[in-house]
Each structure stands twice: as C-alpha cells, then as structure tokens.
Amino acid sequence: MITKYSKLFDTFYSWLFTFSGFKLVVVLTAPFFLTSCVNIKKATYFNEVGEAEFEGQVESLEPVLQKNDILSISVSSLNPDAAEIFNVSNLIATQSSSSEGKTTQASGYLIDQEGFIRFPILGRLKAAGLTKKELREKITQELTSQKLLLEPIVDVRYLNYKVSVLGEVRNPSVLTIPNEKVTLLEALGLAGDLTIYAKRDNVLLIREKEGVKHTHRIDLTTDELLTSPYYYLQSNDIVYVQPNKSKVASTSRAVQWLPVIISALSFGIIAIDRL
C-alpha cells in the first residue's frame, strides 16, 4: 500500500515539475520569438534611400540665445592691456562637488531671467533672443562707438551647450557638446544608438523658443530628417525615443507570468524539502 501511494506521489511530483518547467521554458523563450517576428524595416534607418542630394538647413545652425544660457565672451584688440578689463567675466556658483560642501566657480556670463548679461563698462546688455553673431556684433559696435577699443575682436561661445536623449537608447543621458554643433543622428550615436525595441518612425523632439516649448515628430525610417530643420539640434533640445509594441507587450507578459513562476518554484522547493 505504501509503495502504491509512493508511486502516485512520484507521478504527481513528476507531472508538477514537468508542467512548471514547461511554463518556465515558455516564459523564457517567448521574448525570443516575439523579437524574431519584428519587421526588419521598422528596425532600420532610412529605408529605400538611394543615391541623392539633400540641401542642409543652414539657418538652423545659429541657435538663438535664451535665458539661463551661460556664455564665454572674450575680447581682443591691438592694445591687449586695454582689452584685459573686458575679459574679467562674472562668476557663476555651481553645484557642490566636494565632500567638504564647498562650491566650485565657473567663469561665464549668465543670461538672467530678464534676458540681460552684465558686461564690464558697457553694463547690462540684452542677449536673449539674439544669435551669437548678433550679440558679437552688438558688443563690437558698442566698444567701437564709445571709443573704448580700436578694432576689437569679440568671440562668443556657449559654456552649457547640452542636449538630452531619453527613452529607448542604450545610454540615456544629458550630452555636453563642446563644438556647439550636433545632429540628431550624432546625439543618438553618443547615447549608444537606439535599442531594438525603439520606435524609429516616431521620435519626439522638444525645443523651447522664447519660453514656449515646441514638439516635433521625426520618422527615422525615411529621408524626412535629411531635409528637416531639426536635423541639427540646438542647446537644451530634448529627444525622446518611444518603445515599440513588442517592448510593451513583452514587459506586460513578464509581469503577468512572474507570480506564476515564483509560486511554482516555491511549491517545488517545499516539495523537495519534504521528500
């Protein structure tokens, strides 16, 4: 009798472990089959783009200065001593980076909430809404008209030129761009490129102009980007890459199967322990 019941229990446990193992195999292999069915055209860039010529959007290369931008402004002239005072920029306190709680200082001209910078001798100058070229010409004209310098040379650069890349990329991050020029493709490359789960035909670009945020959708599977004014990014642009349906579906299935797997494994451990 005992032998008979032992065989029944052995059969039951064998069936239980086999069934649980089958479910586990299904859960582990399901993502593989799901991803293998993805349309290859939806996972590549610029489908069916042959040899062609695309004119760049030159006007988009010169971004407009905005509030909270930090600028480096250098001035030189035939008399270096006279120009020295114009190269003493104001100091901007930055976030503490030391264990002692001390703050570091970064040199630069901060565009305040009213859109002005404070420049030596010239005082408050309107900067927000101008391009770097326009601000450079404005400072040059002021120095010349007030006879402060002879043939001054003014250079304006960003100190906080950055773009953010978020969503389905390998390394979501805020990218600092030293040369102040970056394309959308370069930004995606710096973020590790799109993952296989990225929705390439609906990339969201968020850009702020004069305090108003504008959104634009870009399809990377066509040649739309190559002729778009959004091909070159501007400072403070945000790029968001959405996940595709495969990523959402696989995540949902994993969440649904997780309690089943944990219960089956727990029951199996208890059964083995009692044997």
Give the topology, please.
Blueprint: H1 2-36, E1 70-76, H2 80-83, E2 91-93, E3 105-107, E4 109-110, E5 116-119, E6 123-126, H3 132-145, E7 153-158, E8 162-167, E9 173-176, H4 184-190, E10 203-209, E11 212-218, E12 238-241, H5 245-274
Parallel strand pairs: 8-12
Antiparallel strand pairs: 1-4, 1-7, 2-3, 5-6, 8-9, 10-11, 10-12
Shape: elongated
- Average of per-residue pLDDT values: 77
Please tally the β strands and state the result. 12
CATH topology of the largest domain: wza like fold
Q: What share of the residues does DSSP label as strand, in percent?
A: 15-25%
Radius of gyration: 30 Å
Terminal Cα separation, in Å?
18 Å
- The H/E string reads HEHEEEEEHEEEHEEEH
Largest sheet: 5 strands, mixed
The tally of domains stands at 3
Indicate the CATH architecture of the largest domain.
Answer: 2-Layer Sandwich
The DSSP helix count reads: 5
Which percent range fits the helix content? 25-40%
Low-confidence stretches: 91-105
In terms of structural class, how would the helical and strand content be classed? alpha+beta
- CATH H-level homologous superfamily name of the largest domain: wza like domain
Q: Which strand order do you get reading across the main beta sheet?
A: 9-8-12-10-11
So what's the CATH class of the largest domain? Alpha Beta
